[in-house]
Amino acid sequence: MARRDEEVELGTQELEAGMRPRSARDVAVIATIVVLMLAVFNSGGLARWTQGLPSSAANVWLADRAADWHDAMKRLGPSSWFDGIRARFRSD
């Protein structure tokens, strides 16, 4: 695999023309950012997901933390913004 500071041949296929190969680390960074954004803006979905987990002491603890997180996001605003945007799209 080529290092970032080395010159890499540009893509040759039509779909990838002009694109340079990227490392898997870039995908991990993007995935982490997406998960964090979902945790902030869709905290209600996170809370609902944890409530649907199989019953165990660890999952109950996790569901309680997710509910606390959702309450904090509602109080601070991001969850309410997301719910408002989602309601606009669903009101058709």
Key features of this structure:
92 residues; mainly alpha; 2 domains; 0% strand
Describe, in short, the structure shown:
With 92 residues, this protein is mainly alpha-helical. The protein is 65% helix and 0% strand. It folds into 2 domains: 1-41, no CATH class; 42-90.
Topology at a glance:
Layout: H1 24-41, H2 43-51, H3 57-76, H4 78-90
3D architecture notes:
The structure is a single chain. The protein is mainly alpha-helical and 92 residues long. The chain has two domains: 1-41, no CATH class; 42-90. Helix content is 65%, strand content 0%. The chain has helices at residues 24-41, 43-51, 57-76, 78-90. The longest helix has 20 residues, at 57-76. The protein is extended and about 50 Å long. The model has no long low-confidence stretch (mean pLDDT 83).
